[in-house]
C-alpha cells in the first residue's frame, strides 16, 4: 500500500483482475523504483485503501523496459495467439488478418477477437498484457496513446476509465494501467483456461484511434505486444502489427499485392508504375560490364505494358546469370529445333498439296452420282 503511494503508479481499474489475496508486489507492470510521484492522477483513489493488485516492486525485472521487446517468444508454456478469420469477407469487414504479412487490419472502435492458447498450463494468477508500441526505431521510445481529439471527445469515452488508451479489452476484469516512468499504457486481463471442448480463449479488443490520427499514431506503424506474465516475469510474448483504418479488407489486399515480387504486382489502373531495371549483360568472358550494372528506373503506362517489360527484365536478368557455354548450347538447340520444325511444316504442306490433288478426282464422281 505504501509502495503504491510512493511510486505513484497509476492504475485505472474497472475491476480487480485477481482478488485482494494478490500481494501488492506480485503483479507490477514495472520495476522502476524510487520514482517519486503521486497517485492523484488515478481516478480511483479508493484503491489505495486496499492492496493494489498492480503496484511497482523493487526488483529490476520489468515487463516494460523503455524499449519493449517485440520478439515472438512462446516460452515454457507455449503461449500462442491466433485470429479466427471471418468465414466470408465483405466490404464491410470490420477486421481481417493477413497470414502472409502477419498483420491485423481493423476498424477503429470495433471489436476484434484475439484468441489465446498455452500448450502447457501456466501457473495460476497469470495475466495477459496488451501494449501498443511504435514499430520504427525512431518512434519506439515514444508511448502510443490516443490522439487528443479522440481522447477528449464524448464518443466511446463516457464512463470509461481510460479514455487515453489506444488499446482496450472488453473483458469484465480488464485493468488499464499506465507506467509512471515510461508513460506506456497497457491493458491487463487474467489468463484463463479454455472452456470445455475448446482450444482457445477469445478476448475482444478495440483500437481507439485511426492509424492516421494526428497527435496519436500519426501514420506510424504500430504493433500490439501481447505478453503472458506472472509476478512481473514475462512467460511468453507475441507481437502483431496492427493497422487501424476505415477499410480493413481493401487495405489488406493492397498491402498483400505490394508485398509480392514486382512482376506479380498488378498495379491499379491509371497508376504510373516505376520499375527498377538492373539489366546486366554477359560478355564472352563471362564478366559483367560495370556501366551496365547501373540501375535505371522506367515509368510505364498501363498494366499490360508493365507486365511485358517485367518479363523482359526477368529474362535478361536470368540470361545474364547463365554461363556462356550453356548459352551456346541453348542457341544450338534452338537452331536445331527451328530446323526440325521448319522441315516438319514443309513436309506437312507438301503432304496437304498431294492430298488435295488426290482428293479432287475422288470427289467428282461422288457429286455426279448424287445429281
Ligand atoms: Zn484519434
UniProtKB/TrEMBL annotation:
KW DNA-binding (keyword) present: yes
Domain p53 DNA-binding stretches: 70-258
The protein's required cofactors: Zn(2+)
Region (Disordered) residue spans: 21-44
GO cellular component: nucleus
Binding sites annotated in the UniProt record for Zn(2+): 147, 150, 209, 213
Record-annotated p53 tetramerisation domain positions: 287-326
A biological process term (GO) from this entry: apoptotic process
Location relative to the cell: Nucleus
Residues with site note (Interaction with DNA): 91
Cofactor note: Binds 1 zinc ion per subunit.
A GO term, aspect molecular function: metal ion binding
Family as reported in the entry's similarity comment: Belongs to the p53 family.
Descriptive protein name: DeltaNp63gamma
Species of the source: Mytilus galloprovincialis
Amino acid at each position: 500500500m505504501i509502495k503504491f503511494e510512493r511510486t505513484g503508479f497509476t492504475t485505472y481499474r474497472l475491476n480487480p483482475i485477481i482478488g485482494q489475496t494478490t500481494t501488492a508486489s506480485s503483479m507490477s507492470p514495472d520495476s522502476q523504483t524510487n520514482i517519486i510521484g503521486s497517485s492523484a492522477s488515478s481516478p480511483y483513489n479508493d484503491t489505495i485503501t486496499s492492496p493494489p493488485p498492480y503496484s511497482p516492486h523493487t526488483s529490476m525485472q520489468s515487463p516494460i523496459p523503455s524499449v519493449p521487446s517485440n520478439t515472438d517468444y512462446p516460452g515454457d508454456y507455449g503461449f500462442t495467439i491466433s485470429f479466427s478469420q471471418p468465414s466470408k469477407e465483405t466490404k464491410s469487414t470490420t477486421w481481417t488478418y493477413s497470414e502472409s504479412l502477419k498483420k491485423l487490419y481493423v476498424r477503429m472502435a470495433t471489436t476484434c477477437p484475439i484468441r489465446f492458447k498455452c500448450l502447457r498450463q501456466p501457473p495460476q494468477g497469470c495475466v495477459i498484457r496488451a501494449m501498443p508500441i511504435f514499430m520504427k526505431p525512431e518512434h519506439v521510445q515514444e508511448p502510443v496513446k490516443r490522439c487528443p481529439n479522440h481522447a477528449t471527445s464524448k464518443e466511446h469515452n463516457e464512463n470509461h476509465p481510460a479514455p487515453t488508451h489506444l488499446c482496450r479489452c472488453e473483458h469484465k476484469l480488464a485493468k488499464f494501467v499506465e507506467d509512471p516512468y515510461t508513460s506506456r499504457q497497457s491493458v491487463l486481463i487474467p489468463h484463463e483456461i479454455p472452456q470445455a471442448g475448446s482450444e482457445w480463449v477469445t478476448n475482444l479488443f478495440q483500437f481507439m484511434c485511426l492509424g492516421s490520427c494526428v497527435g496519436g499514431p500519426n501514420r506510424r506503424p504500430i504493433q500490439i505486444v501481447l505478453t503472458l506474465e506472472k509476478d512481473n516475469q514475462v512467460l511468453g510474448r507475441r507481437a502483431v502489427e496492427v493497422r487501424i483504418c476505415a477499410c480493413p479488407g481493401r487495405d489488406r489486399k493492397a498491402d498483400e499485392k505490394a508485398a509480392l515480387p514486382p512482376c506479380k504486382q498488378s498495379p491499379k489502373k491509371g497508376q504510373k508504375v516505376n520499375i527498377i531495371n538492373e539489366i546486366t549483360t554477359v560478355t564472352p568472358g563471362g564478366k559483367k560490364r560495370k556501366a551496365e550494372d547501373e540501375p535505371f528506373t522506367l515509368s510505364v503506362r498501363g498494366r499490360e505494358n508493365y507486365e511485358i517489360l517485367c518479363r523482359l527484365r526477368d529474362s535478361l536478368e536470368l540470361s545474364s546469370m547463365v554461363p556462356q557455354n550453356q548459352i551456346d548450347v541453348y542457341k544450338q538447340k534452338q537452331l536445331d529445333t527451328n530446323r526440325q520444325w521448319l522441315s516438319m511444316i514443309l513436309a506437312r504442306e507438301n503432304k496437304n498439296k498431294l492430298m488435295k490433288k488426290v482428293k479432287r478426282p475422288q470427289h467428282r464422281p461422288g457429286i455426279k452420282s448424287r445429281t
